[in-house]
Amino acid sequence: MTKQEAVPMNDLKRLYQRYQVEIEHEVTSTLRSGWWLNGAAGKKFAANFSKFIGVSECVLVANGTDALELALAAVTTRGREVVVAANAGGYASCACWHNDLIPHYVDIEPASQLVDIQSVLKAASVDTAAIVVTHLYGGVVDVRAIRDGLDQAGLSHIPIVEDCAQAHGARIGSDVAGSLGDISTFSFYPTKNLGAMGDGGAVLTSDTVIAGHVRQLQQYGWSSKYHVGVPYGRNSRMDEVQAAILDVLLGDVDSRNRQRRGILSQYKSVAGRRLQFLEGGDGAVAHLAVALCDDRDSFRAFMKERGIDTDIHYPVLDCDQVGWADLPMKGSENLAVSRASVSRLCSVPCYPDMTSDEIEQVCLALREWEAM
Length: 372
Known about the structure:
Blueprint: H1 12-18, H2 20-33, H3 40-53, E1 57-61, H4 64-75, E2 81-85, H5 91-98, E3 102-106, H6 117-123, E4 128-134, H7 143-152, E5 160-163, E6 171-172, E7 175-176, E8 183-187, E9 201-205, H8 208-217, E10 222-224, E11 227-228, H9 240-250, H10 253-270, E12 275-277, E13 289-293, H11 296-305, H12 336-342, E14 345-348, H13 356-371
Parallel strand pairs: 2-3, 2-4, 4-5, 5-8
Antiparallel strand pairs: 1-9, 6-7, 8-9, 10-11, 12-13, 13-14
């Protein structure tokens, strides 16, 4: 067959080129200020991002995993269970273990790969310290339904932590992901829907007491400089350069999400028999274009022959990771959908800076695969 141009899973150079003038202006201004941590750029982005999400408090931290760990530390007591999905890459599980908490795994819905609400409610009990709801692949979990179910079960005290690492700007109705639970966490890893040019994360809430606890934990547990008021603190900060860059990109998150959804919609229009692209809900933001495929290895080889990158998000359930086998966990025997799905998941390129030719190249390959 004729050799075609390569279609990468992502190409961050294009993002930089699109915003180069604005980014370089803000980065240069920040560097010239001589204030590279805990300064005006961070305060500005935190205020703008909390307004975008619809909450009052935003604490900027070093990365998304730190955000999860700090959020759980702020709302739980050690030694108890946290309800989580097993299919989301291991980040919530790590946050549990680093806080001496026990992940209690629950199953997912097949069409979305998002956590199954009834499974969450069945697992919740007086032993539950928190529930982590991961808005995976840019889809949106109905957090309000979980809260209503907890209230009806007499478990209204259980905090819900939203993991929004893949869901910047996602919505359910008029509510933005990150405003639905008691506390939420974000990653600004470069490939995210809102990504830094380095690393960064954030913890958001409208509870000022929780926010105050997170601020202590992110700065060694200090109650005042060099005076530790709470245990288990650390050093976790976002630098001013990353905050300045993120503030430049924030204004276009919604428009770029629409581009992502448009690309995924084109893929869905040519697939459906051999590939089933996931359905994340009307307010989903297509962080990734993930499909279920019964012959994944052959599909990936087929796409590679046509110059198209693919990836797997994620190839191993948390409970099946060899290195974590001896760590405390519950629920791994009740994951029928998760286990049936993990060997079928495959991602194809989907990002706003793809060219129309690249999108058509992927669509042509998908059509050809479906016709086989």
